[in-house]
Amino acid sequence: MRVLVAIDDSECSGEAFESVLKRHWSPDTQFKLLNVLEPLHWQYPLEESFAAALIEYHEELKLSAHALIKGQMDRLNLVFGEHNVSGCVMEGSVGESILAFAKTWKADLIVLGSHGRNGLQKMILGSVADKVSRHAACSVEIVKSKAKQKQESAA
Q1: What's the pLDDT score for residue 24?
Q2: Of 19, 48, 91, 113, which alpha carbon lies 20 to 30 A from 143's?
Q3: CATH, domain range 2-154
């Protein structure tokens, strides 16, 4: 089995990762951790110093993404072995990139977290989990944030 785990530094992503870590998997299961960064782009001319600061910030985000992938890979390696775990960082539209990578890598399962946005937030910010679940060619597991689950059960 090939399990693609889409991660970022959010709480819901951490919960999705923990669900993968705690589960019993077949010894031949392969895990791929994926972090997708939105590309840096702007439509209007920027002051040179501001553009340079944006580029520097984006480079810092890349370094953080690589550190996140490495740290989570190390945790999976301890449980499932180094030969079964790999990871990568990509740039692009998050939902589209996850779908394209899953197709290319021939994932059997995609695991990702959900912020649980709804209404106006979902309309403005979109939902990566929704997009992936609707368009993936394989099974998708969406792990909801525990905080969001508590809000829903209290309502």
Answers
A1: 93
A2: 91
A3: 3.40.50.620
